[in-house]
Amino acid sequence: MHLSDNATLRALVWMVACGALFGVLNMLQKLLTHQLHPPQVMCLRYLVGSSLLLPFVLQAGWGHYRPRRPALHAWRGLFHVTGSLIWISVIPLVSLAEASAIGFTGPIFMMLGASLFLGERMDGARWAAVLIAFGGVLMVLWPGLVQSDVAVLPTVWMLVASPLFAVSFLLSKVLTRYDRPEAIVFWLGVMIFSFGLPFAVFALEWPLRVAWQWPTALQWIIVGACGLAGSAAHYCMTRAYRIADVSAVQSVRFLDLVWAAVLGFLVFGHLPTLWALAGGSVICAATLWIARHEARHPQEA
Fold it and tell me: In terms of pTM, does the model score above 0.70?
């Protein structure tokens, strides 16, 4: 079967690209959060991302990018900025592989939400793929969980962020019924910059103090790369959700752990543990299996 013949398989390819781009984005953001106020990194990333789309906005015209459900965009921005503030604040304290593995709880929340609120069908194959892959994630996390006090781990805050991101991505799926993918990406950046700016300027402590630092030339280049990678990743994700069910493409997101492990080693010298390698093998097996299953059982886009 050709790729162009199957909507779900095309969506899986979009989601693989999305995961690789998010891996690059997370690596760049982790670099910056060791140098700048983390919420500032978040705000600048989304500001640059939306700014990169401005030439396309001007070329296509307001009618192409006008939000047809502005309240949904605002709600998505609110959930996403809350999750992002939590995530960006703890990413300096964990490895990329750990952050990626913890983020895999998000698809579980998404699939439940898609089934409960969007009426998407959850067949046994999709449940099996996600649960097997999630088992691989638990293998990655197990050594840290049994040796540490979970109540004080930064990973707990990342787990708190997961359902917030899940709500945001589900709202993105709903918005594809009304707006184009590029418009959804553009307005996400606008909303997050607007909602997150006060946290980027001031530190969350009393008395309030200004935490904003003007980036250096090199930091601006990295911020620009963050904006480009982030916008491209969200565009790929939105394209995937436009042509297939949320639940059909979630297993592929577990490949993010592979990108995170490779980039973590190349950039930060973090070697993945044996548990990480074993869990990654389980994740890859589940991903390849669900891709083969969806190719054999195509659904209407």
Answer: yes
Question: Residue 23: what residue type?
Answer: G
DSSP string covering 241-271? HHHS-HHHHGGGGGGHHHHHHHHHHHHH--P
The torsion angle over the Cα atoms of residues 147, 152, 158 and 161, rounded to 10 degrees, is 140
Q: Which residues pair with 202 in a beta bridge?
A: 210
Per DSSP, the chain holds a count of helices (H) and strands (E) of: 13, 0
Q: Which structure tokens are listed for 229?
A: 């990678």
Question: In angstroms, rounded to a whole number, what is the distance separating the alpha carbons of residues 163 and 165?
Answer: 5
Q: What is the pLDDT of residue 151?
A: 40
DSSP category for residue 217: H
How does pLDDT run across 87-126, given as a tens digit for each residue? 999 998 888 887 887 777 777 777 777 777 777 777 787 7
Helix (H) or strand (E) holding 67: none
Residue partners of 83: CB distance under 8 A and separation at least 6? 161, 162, 164, 165, 168
Write the DSSP symbol of residue 202.
B
Residue with tokens 């103090």: 209
Strand, helix or coil for residue 37: coil
Low-confidence ranges of the chain (pLDDT < 70): 1-5, 144-152, 246-247, 250-251, 287-288, 290-292, 294-295, 297-301
Report how far Cα 78 is from the mean position of its chain's Cα atoms: 15
